[in-house]
Please model this.
Amino acid sequence: MAIAADLTQVESVDKVVSTTLEQFGQIDILVNNAGSARAGSFLELSDDVFLDAWNLKLLGYIRLVKAVVPHQKNRRDGRIVNIIGGAGRTPRPGFLPGGTTNAALLNFTRGISKELAEYNIRINAISPGATATERAERLAEQNAQARGITVEQAKAETLQGIPLKRIAQPEEIAALTLFLVSDLAASITGAEILVDGGHTPGV
Model:
């Protein structure tokens, strides 16, 4: 069942949740997967670019969690996965609106996990690196434009920085999501799993 909604609007989030409950009676799983932050040089980005990214992804995720959790809390069972992104852990100068959004979402996911655990609600994060999607194509174009290089050069540089020398496929992210919401991951909550071919440095 598809529901058209704008996650920047509280009323739309309420519509998604209420319509789903009317149709199915309960919400066992919530997967937050949104994002449209623009890439580009910091000095060329207006405040609106940052505000749009925060309002859609950061507050959109928070709004949906807040709307769904009371129903899961009453049943003492629920699984939530936030699709975030590696830029929240490793800042990228050409992607600061998205990176600041992702860093805040990591903080939120980890911070809320202990409170939700009391009600047997698990919440985890998946942070994909470069993934073969239409959005990745747009980001490559925006990065190339900001840096004055070709799209092909931008893509080649991205690939060069990945130890496995391959970008993730959407199906890989879906498979990990299914694992995290299954009983196979019954003891995992407040965790972030990177899917970036070994790109992210650090311990």
Remarks:
- The two ends are 41 Å apart (CA to CA).
